[in-house]
Amino acid sequence: MSKNVKTYVLLGLVLIIWGIIGYKVVKTLSPDEDPLPTSKPFAFTPKPLAEKDTFRLMANYRDPFLGTLPQSERKPVKQQVAKQPVQKKNIVYSGSVAQTGDSKTLFFVTIDGQQHLMSKNEQADGVKLVTGNGEEIKVRYGGITETILRSQ
């Protein structure tokens, strides 16, 4: 084959290859419009929930390592203890005395007819003085907290 024949054959092959490539590019850039399929309206109906099947293992067999049976879980029966009513005490707050240089204050408290000098957190005749000021005191006895005003 001569040199010119080879050139024309190769030129024809190149034109065919570039034609195929060009055709694919043009086809991709301008695709045919296919009609979109129409969809029917969808109605959602949830499935009913089934109740879960539950189970519990009964592990009441002998322990293979210790050789003992498990302890039965018995809850202790709580016995009702009747609370005895606390008898109210006759408490009278007469006043207080404080030293000018000291922060400790003494309170005059009469408990069931007996007068006591008490400071904060002090206890006398089963009555504890919790807090106090010039006008009132708080006392606690038998689980009851009581506020007592100063008597005139």
Report on the structure:
The chain is α+β, with helices and mostly antiparallel strands and 152 residues long. The chain has a domain at 91-149: SH3 type barrels (Roll). It has one helix and seven strands; from the N terminus they run αβββββββ. The chain has one helix at 3-29; strands at residues 91-98, 105-111, 114-118, 123-124, 127-132, 136-141, 144-149. It has a four-stranded antiparallel β-sheet with strand order 4-5-6-7, with no helix packed on it. β1 and β2 (105-111) form a beta hairpin. The model has no long low-confidence stretch (mean pLDDT 85).
CATH structural architecture of the domain at 91-149:
Roll
User: Average pLDDT, to the nearest integer?
Assistant: 85
SSE order, one letter for each helix or strand = HEEEEEEE
CATH class of the domain at 91-149: Mainly Beta
The fraction of residues assigned to DSSP E strands is 25-35%
Discrete helix count? 1
| Widest sheet: strand ordering | 4-5-6-7
